Amino acid sequence: MVDEVETNSEKFSLTSKQYKTATTFICALLFFILPLASLQVGIPGDEPIDAQYGIESLNFYKSFGNDTSFVNLTALNQQTFPYQKYYGALFETVSVSISQLFGTPVYKTRHILVALFAAVIILFTALFTAEIAGWMAAFIAVLLLASSPTFIGNSYFNSKDIPMAMGFIIAFYFFIKLLKQLPRYSTKTILGCIAGIALTIGIRIGGLLLVGYLIVFLLYFISDNDSLRKQLFSSVKSVFSLTAIVLLICFSGVLIGCLFYPNFFLHGFSHITEAMNVAKYFPVKIVMLFGGNLIYAHEITWSYLPVCMGITFPVTGIAGLFIFYVQLYLRRKIFSWQDFILVYTVLFLLVYVVATHQLMYNSWRHVLFIYPIIISTSAIAYMRLYSALNKIYFKAALVILFSVMTIKTFGWMIINHPYEYIYFNEIQGGVKGAYGNYDTDYQQLAATESFEWLLNSNDFKNDTAKNKTLLTNNIALICADQYLPDSMEILESSYVRLNYRPMNYAIMSSIFLDKQVMKHFYPPKGTIHEVKVDGVPISVVVKRENDYLEKGKYFFDHAQLDSAFVYLLRAFHYDADDFRTWPVLGHCYFLKGYPNLAHEMISRYVQYFPEDEMALNELDLVESYIDSLNRVEVKVK
Fold first, then answer.
1. 3-class SS of residue 287
2. Which of 611, 610, 616 lies closest to 586, judged by CA?
3. In this predicted model, what pLDDT tens digit does every residue of 364-404 receive, in sequence order?
4. Which domains occur in the chain, in start order?
């Protein structure tokens, strides 16, 4: 009976060659699927800046350093971005060069290229995992990575974190190859290590971490291998040879990577120090929604990164990590150099980020480069667990459970494409559970879909207005000149200021809105279209039905109280839930001699916007006035 179970168990498993074939097939398929899927993605908020940086960087190289426009980069209606020069221009210049060479649209070219880089990441994650634990683990790693919505979603547009992750995993793969080849060195492996470091640094200066990782891995590997240690230290020549190879890899990788910074040619190696300081203390303040509160990036606490990871990793990945560390404890007496690399890579970075208070923008995308290592760790845990189970029904239960969870995540990705990067797992209750508590479409991809819907809608086609104005809180939409009709002007406006300005239509993302506003006031009255994920709106198209509030605010600002009062009352009767009307109408009520009505309007506003100092001061003034009237009334009585 036991022999029969073992035979069935063996039949239930594939051979290493079969796993390799299946892994290769999936990786090859993704080289077609990901670029095609990227064509449906909108323009991210940062992309016009990055694309312009690519143009200016390419001009610098083509002019042999004479054109230095990149230093004070101008984009988005002549706004300046002086810190862009501290980013590597590798991806930006390559994508612009391809676009100019083949005459392809800039943004589509960028998205396809990012998607191809993501496919390379998946391929090298498989190769890395196979080197450490075999092809079964590699197969699981590919499934986990391909069913990671945050990773796949970023694979369509993220021109910084995806290319950096590609360089990182390429470097790690060749690091492993180098360790396993010691005390000899393959030229191919050495060049691979150099290329991985150069590619990573060519995107962000944080790629310098790879130098530290390589040295630590070498030291641990040598210390853990007695025979190798004796071979290496048997002669001065072998020690010198290893040291020279390591220095060659590190110096060449760093130098080649720095060549992709135009600013490096102007400031030399001092650019590295400047870039590292800017990366740590980035002066641009970005507002983020975290735990239901709007905070600035420099205000995040140590919990920010682990919380964001915990609620956006697929549950299969989190479970795999948990299994791995349980196994690690149980297998502590046989702790291997492979285990050390997997543990040290992730824990060192997380501890470093927390301990040094590194700036994090919009969830964990800035540490996306370690995600392939995390996935590899999780995959190895599943492989070890599967191998440790000695009953076929246990193995079958594990496969079924893993398959169900993976298929469920794949299904979510297909339904919500191209907004996979918005994903929140079951721990958070999905996107619906995260809505109002955490940023969703922080790159405002859905604004492009809203814009295209508007241009093709009957409302717009039948609109006889000669000159139309579109308000938006998406700066990238201002650059949509390839879609823009001659009769439309796009202007920037915050959601809070909407309806105070002239407009025909508005496209508003849910970004930068606090929990109260999203819960009670978004989307606004007049919404004619919504882009939804998990049933919640992330971008809306609004059509203005009247200009009552706009005129009321205009007359109020120009001290024409009677006219302002008339239009503000009309605005209030049209939409009593428009919070923008309340403070202005309240002020008018006060000036017109209706303090109690003024108090009602302003206090209602303050209830939802308690940090508005002007409204608070106005409320104090009204309350003091009412108190004084009450005191006078008491004295008269």
1. strand
2. 616
3. 999 999 999 999 999 999 999 999 998 899 999 999 999 99
4. 2-280+287-415 (no CATH), 446-543 (no CATH), 551-636 (1.25.40.10)
